[in-house]
Amino acid sequence: MKIIVSVKQVPARDSALRINATGKWLDESDLTYEMNEPDAYALEEALQLKEKLGGEVVVLCLGPQRAGQTIREALAKGADRAIHVQMDDDVVLDPLATARLLAKAIQPEAPEMILTGLQSDDLGYGQTGVVLAELLGFAHATIVMEVEPQGNSVRVKRELEDGWFQNVVLPLPVLLTIQSGIKKLRYATLMGIKKAKTKEVKTITAAQLGADGGSSSTVDRVYLPQRSKQLQLFTGDAKSAAKQLVEKLKFEVRVI
Amino acid sequence: MSILVILEQRGGKWTRMSFEVLTAGKNIAEATGLPLEAVVIGTGIEALASEASQYPVANVYSLDHALLGDYTPDGYTAALEQFIRAKQAKYVLFPHTYQVRDFAPKLATRFGKALVSDVAGVKAQDSSVEFVRQFFQGKLNADVAASGEPQFASIQAGAFRALEPTNAGAPVEAFSVNLDAAQIRSKPEQPFREAQRSVDLGAADLIVSVGRGIKEKDNLAVVEELAKALGAELAASRPICDNGWLPMERQVGSSGQTVAPKVYFAIGISGAIQHLVGMKGSKTVVAINKDENAPIFETADYGVVGDLFEVVPALVDEIKKAKA
Ligand SMILES: Cc1cc2nc3c(=O)[nH]c(=O)nc-3n(C[C@H](O)[C@H](O)[C@H](O)COP(=O)(O)OP(=O)(O)OC[C@H]3O[C@@H](n4cnc5c(N)ncnc54)[C@H](O)[C@@H]3O)c2cc1C
Ligand SMILES: Nc1ncnc2c1ncn2[C@@H]1O[C@H](COP(=O)(O)O)[C@@H](O)[C@H]1O
Question: Would an 8 Å CB–CB cutoff place A180 in contact with chain B?
Answer without folding.
Answer: yes
